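A student in our group prepared the protein record below, which I am reviewing. This is what I was given:
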Amino acid sequence: MLHAVAAASKLAKKGVVICWETAGTSNPKLLDCAVALSLETGGCIKFDLKAYDEALHVALTGASNQRTLENFARAARRFSERPDPPLVIASTLLVPGYVDPPEVALIARFIASINPNIPYALLGFGPHFYMQDLPRTSVGHAQAAEEAARAAGLANVRIGNRHLLSRDY
């Protein structure tokens, strides 16, 4: 992250819009630098919120989500400084059998407690790499997750990676 911030700083001076995609595990001071660069250049910082439940997060990633949630909240508190284009964005991969609509509702409640206008993308899962034995996210799963996120208080929710969704419900 230190190298990425240094490179982004040089690029920002040349007029490049700085956008980030992160698991949110960086040092909070480096995160502050990343957020400042995105704010200054018109870019964004997108957090991949894999799970709200810590045990589930550990099962999916091998690590705690404590730093991720703390860093997301830290960055998201600055959302209103520039909501358009959005400074902070969140996404969650809908992994069948793991990240279900109730889990999405927990994540969405967390996001909404900071700012209900933060954009939230629910991403279809396609099996590959370590999770080849899982099915693709179904249309029904994605739609139920979208409904759960809206019911939890988020105003800007969308389903992404629709091309990966299966028609199996």
The chain has one domain: 2-10+21-164. The chain has a mean pLDDT of 95. The chain is about 45% helix and 15% strand. The longest strand covers residues 88-94.
